[in-house]
Structure formats: C-alpha cells, structure tokens
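ARCHIVE CARD
CATEGORY: sequence design from structure
SOURCE FIELD: tokenized fold
FIELD CONTENT:
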C-alpha cells in the first residue's frame, strides 16, 4: 500500500470507531481487517500504529484542532498528529491526494486549521485533564489515588505495554520454554516479579508460534499472574473462580494446583465461559468444571461455605489497562463507575458466602481507582465482620509484597498494568467439642445391703 492508502485506511478505521463509541477499539479493528483481508500484515501494522497513536493523543489533538477553529474529525485527528510530531502542512497535503485508495485532498478549511496548528505556541498550557488524556470527571479520582506521582503514572499508562506471557508449567519450565520461543525468533526475558512470566518488547505474533499453539504459554500481564499467586491455591484445594470470563486466571490457578484438586469457573456470560473451553484444552488443564451463574440459581446456596479459595476478578473500569486500550480513557463515563461499584459490592457479598470458615477470598480488579479497590474492601469488611485482611504469605509472591494483604501495582512503579488485589480470610468456626458430661458418681448398691425401707 502507498502511504496515502494507509492514511485513507487509518481514517476509515477511526471513523468506524467513532460510529461505535461503546465498542472497544480492538474489536472494531478486528472486524475492519477481517472485512479487508487483502490488507497484508505490514500494512495492518502501519495502519494500526497510526490509529493507536491517534487514540493515545485523543484529547490533546482535539484541543489543538478546536483551538484552531476546526472539528476533530478522523481526517484532522490523523493530520494534526503529523503536524504535532514535526511534519509540515505542505508534506501532509502531498499525502492527502485524490484517488481510489487515497484520503482525498485537504479542504480549504482543513488546510487553514492545520496551518494554525503548525503556528500554535507549543508551550501554551492545556487543562490538566487534557494534557494527561483523561476525562475531566476522573481527574480528582486519579489525583487522590496517585498524589505527587500522578503525572508519572499517567505518562506510563499512555505508553505502549510490553507483551507478557505466562509459562504453563504443566507443559514445561520457564527456561526451557524461553529457549523454545527463542528458536521461533521470539526473544523473551524473564519478568522480574512473577516466577512464571516472560516479557517480549511489544506486539509480536505470539499466537501463531508453536509454543503458543502447544499450550506452553498464555498471554497474561505480569500483574494478573501475581493476582493468581496471591490466591495461594494448592493441589488439594476446592477453588472457585467466581468471575472467570474466558478463563485467563483459571488456567493459571490450574497450573498452581498442578492440575489436581477441583476448580469451578463461574461467570454470567455464556460466550465468555465458552471461550475458556479451547484454552483449557490447549493448556492441558483437567481439574476445571465450568458453571453458568443464572438468576435464582440454587447452585450457590448448595455450596455455601464450601470453598478453600474464592477468586473474585471483578468486572471493573479497566483503568489499569489503558496502556493496551487507550480508547477506554475516552469512553469511560462517570455513570459506568457508579454502576460498576454497585455490581462489585453485590458480587463480593455473593462470593463471600461460598468461602469456608478459615478459607480465603481474593478480590481483584484491573482498575487504579480507589472507589473500586480499597473503598470496596473497607465497605465489605464493615458489612462482614467475619472476614479480615491477611498477608498472602505464598512463596510465588516477591518478598516485598508478601507481608501485605493488599497488592497495588501500577505501570510507573512496577512496569505492569494497574492491578489491585486484597486477600480476605473468613474466621475459622470454633471447633465443636463434645460437652464433657460429669457423670454423677453412682455408688453401686452393695450386694448384700438390705433393701431401703
Ligand atoms: C475482569 S473480567 C474476568 C476476567 C477473567 N477472570 C480472566 O482472567 O480472564 C470480569 C468477568 O466478570 C463477569 N461478571 C459480570 N457480572 C458478574 C456477576 N454478577 N457474577 C459473576 N461474574 C460476573 C463478566 O462476564 C466478566 O467475564
């Protein structure tokens, strides 16, 4: 494809994303490329790079365009990014040409807008929320969470993420698998925090490698691996993965249990639970049963207080994954957060009922917002006095996290996605001991005693 054809495709893709504002950008992109199979791998990557750059700089680009009197259309968003990264209006005009596979020439208004952006004072102060690429309403939440580290953390959340893999130790150890990947041209390094993690520098075609197809690795952020380590599931346990989705963490739990014991993977979504089947088979996990949660289901009642470990990987804003999903920054609305916090509290209470006395529940999110994390745990403990926070104390957790019941990871501090996990233990019930009955001393009647009068 010519550079103009790539530009045209990037503009079309951005327009499709605009037309489906509640749909994740990667889902829109997958459909877009599926319908255009003639676009080869190199062109796809170039088009995606243009689009993802635009998504990462959404608010800043819109701010410059609007200040210059324009509308933030997909064409101007792409073109203004080129100006703001050093290109000239003249060079951009040469790429915006007429033709079947080209974006069409810039209109007079577009040219004026781009000229004004090129002349704008780059040091002009933008509002904080614009500069940090977040919705205005979210700014106080993130300021409360990160304080003096806010800029650093949001800067890190704006970068492209590394690609983390989890080695499936049911199929091989980390070093052997690393060497296998290397032979396929994938040069991975061990992750610093997870004992099962391997890290690749960025988007690479891992899913087409033999190592992936043979179930030796799964794509899983290092933070997500540590959440599983916090659960401390061991081979003899009964474990419930309450919000299992397509089984990302279920697979890792099966691995920590060496494919023994029993895991039940629940969810309310049929397609998600169905998505787990192929992955479980590929990983060789045999100790997992799936269960669809439905309203009025007696299933949970019958299993009250019966699980050694319960993982609640709650539905959340996903604010910790913005490195991978920059579009989510723009889509997130205040009402989403309100709805999610209500749902999380309900799920926590339902899942807690399934933990056996002395058993543990791990509540986790990929959110960086206190409302979904710390505040949720404080409120849960106020409602449930028989649970307390306990340190995970498992060997798979790096020492610096081992003594704290709460794990709070962030991209700038830990080079992972933003993750939160809290370990809660249900009080053991006092052991039921047989009451000691003090038998009254019975003096056997003496054999030859005379009968009582
Ligand atoms: C963060 S995702 C889980 C991701 C999954 N654990 C993994 O590691 O791949 C949250 C999941 O919660 C599920 N969910 C939403 N409401 C639920 C509910 N009331 N009870 C159980 N699961 C629910 C969603 O369908 C979604 O799959």
């Amino acid at each position: 494809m010519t550079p103009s054809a790539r530009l045209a495709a990037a503009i079309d893709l951005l327009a499709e994303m605009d037309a489906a504002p509640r749909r994740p950008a990667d889902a829109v992109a997958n459909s877009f490329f599926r319908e255009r199979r003639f676009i080869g791998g190199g062109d796809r990557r170039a088009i995606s790079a243009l689009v993802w750059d635009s998504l990462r700089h959404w608010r800043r680009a819109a701010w410059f365009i609007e200040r210059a009197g324009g509308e933030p259309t997909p064409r101007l968003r792409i073109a203004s990014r080129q100006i703001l990264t050093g290109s000239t209006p003249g060079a951009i005009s040469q790429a915006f040409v007429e033709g079947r596979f080209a974006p069409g020439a810039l209109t007079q208004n577009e040219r004026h807008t781009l000229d004004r952006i090129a002349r704008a004072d780059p040091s002009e102060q933008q509002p904080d929320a614009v500069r940090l690429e977040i919705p205005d309403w979210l700014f106080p939440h993130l300021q409360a969470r990160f304080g003096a580290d806010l800029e650093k953390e949001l800067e890190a959340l704006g970068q492209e993420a590394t690609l983390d893999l989890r080695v499936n130790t049911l199929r091989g150890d980390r070093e052997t698998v690393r060497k296998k990947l290397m032979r396929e041209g994938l040069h991975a390094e061990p992750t610093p925090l997870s004992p099962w993690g391997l890290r690749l520098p960025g988007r690479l075609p891992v899913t087409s490698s033999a190592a992936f197809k043979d179930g030796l690795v799964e794509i899983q952020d290092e933070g997500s691996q540590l959440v599983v380590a916090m659960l401390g599931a061991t081979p003899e346990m009964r474990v419930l993965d309450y919000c299992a989705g397509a089984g990302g963490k279920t697979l890792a739990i099966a691995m920590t249990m060496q494919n023994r014991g029993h895991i039940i993977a629940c969810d309310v979504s049929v397609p998600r639970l169905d998505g787990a089947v192929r992955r479980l088979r590929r990983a060789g996990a045999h100790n997992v049963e799936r269960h669809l949660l439905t309203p009025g289901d007696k299933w949970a009642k019958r299993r009250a207080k019966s699980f050694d470990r319960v993982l609640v990987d709650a539905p959340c804003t996903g604010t910790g994954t913005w490195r991978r999903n920059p579009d989510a920054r723009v889509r997130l609305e205040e009402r989403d957060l309100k709805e999610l916090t209500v749902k999380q509290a309900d799920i926590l209470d339902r899942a807690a009922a399934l933990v056996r006395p002395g058993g543990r529940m791990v509540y986790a999110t990929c959110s960086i917002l206190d409302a979904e994390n710390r505040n949720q745990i404080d409120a849960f403990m106020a409602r449930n006095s028989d649970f307390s926070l306990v340190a995970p104390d498992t060997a798979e957790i790096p020492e610096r996290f081992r003594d704290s019941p709460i794990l709070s990871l962030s991209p700038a501090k830990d080079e992972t996605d933003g993750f939160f996990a809290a370990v809660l233990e249900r009080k053991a019930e006092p052991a039921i001991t047989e009451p000691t009955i003090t038998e009254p001393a019975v003096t056997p009647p003496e054999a030859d005693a005379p009968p009582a009068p």
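CARD ANNOTATION: DSSP finds 21 helices and twelve strands in the chain. The two ends are 121 Å apart (CA to CA).
SHELF: design records, drawer C
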